[in-house]
Amino acid sequence: MFNLVLFGPPGSGKGTQSDKLVDQYGLIHLSTGNLLRKEIADQTALGLSAKSYIDSGKLVPDQVVIGMVDSFFEQHKGAKGFLFDGFPRTVAQAAALDELLVKKNTSISIVIALEVSEEELVKRLLKRGQTSGRSDDTDESVIRKRFAVYMQETSPVAAYYQQAGKFRSIAGEGTVEAIFTGICSQIAHAS
Ligand code: AP5
Ligand code: MG
Fold first, then answer.
1. Ligand 1, atom 46, residue with closest C-alpha
2. Do the beta carbons of residue 50 and residue 60 sit within 8 Å?
3. pLDDT at 143
4. Residue 52 CB-density burial (10 A; 0-12 exposed, 13-18 middle, 19+ buried)
5. Would you place residue 24 in the very low, low, confident or very high pLDDT band (cuts 50, 70, 90)?
6. Ligand 1 atom at minimal distance to the Cα of residue 114
7. Structural domain containing residue 152
């Protein structure tokens, strides 16, 4: 299996690039943000408990997210590989993911981080907030809170994968096509 983690702060282009990468490499897209928003739209118990965290820009508790990923794997047993988008977001999630993948006799192949300045990120998210309907995009203070949470809780995940020799980063500013080409060339070097 080929398992890719697309890493980076809110608005760095993980979702945009994921759409192209799943087509190119035949991977299953696992976006915990998308899964959580679907739970909220379906008004499930999980969705109701996650909503207040998302609306305030905080992380949903690890146990909830890890359980959701575990059941996603159960539903996609024949996958030839996964593209993880917005997960793992804490070191505890990264360790839990390693354990889940061991059970599937596989592991993370490579982690690619998209680097974008905070000013560009805020600009992108406020612009998307005009049309996306995402509750966490419309208020600049919630966007700033998401960045603070990223710096505190998610950025240590980079070191976790650096220690494993799996971490690469590329510039996430420029055209969507140029960034996609950069990601594909990192993948080619890794495999
Ligand atoms: P999640 O849905 O994962 O959101 P995020 O990480 O905050 O990031 P975004 O989806 O906003 O950005 P993106 O990097 O995908 O960028 P995109 O391609 O959309 O998480 C939301 C919330 O759910 C979290 O805050 C948390 O509460 C909860 N959650 C999710 N996962 C969790 C987990 N594992 N643990 C705990 N809680 C979790 O692009 C952004 C915009 O920029 C778009 O409008 C796009 O068109 C534009 N754009 C993209 N590329 C470019 C470019 N090259 N140039 C110009 N504009 C561009
Ligand atoms: Mg996204």
1. 16
2. yes
3. 94
4. exposed
5. very high
6. 14
7. 2-190
Over residues 156-168, the pLDDT tens digits come to 999 999 999 999 9
Whole-prediction pTM: 0.97
Total of domains in the chain: 1
Ligand showing the shortest atom-to-Cα distance for residue 58: 1
Ligand nearest to C-alpha 51 = 1
Q: pLDDT tens across 115-158, in order?
A: 999 999 999 999 999 998 888 998 999 999 999 999 999 999 99
CATH number of the CATH domain containing 138: 3.40.50.300
With contact defined as beta carbons under 8 Å apart, do 78 and 159 qualify? no
Interval between CA 161 and ligand 2 midpoint (Å): 20
Q: Tell me what pLDDT residue 190 has.
A: 83
Q: HSE-up of 64 (CA within 13 Å, CB side)? A: 18
Active-site entry in 134, 145, 166, 168? 134
At position 129, the amino acid (one-letter code) is G
**Could you please report the per-residue DSSP string of 100-154?**
HHHHTT----EEEEEE--HHHHHHHHHHHHHHH--TTTS-HHHHHHHHHHIIIII
11 CA → ligand 2 middle, Å: 7
With 80 as the cut, is the pLDDT of residue 191 above it? no
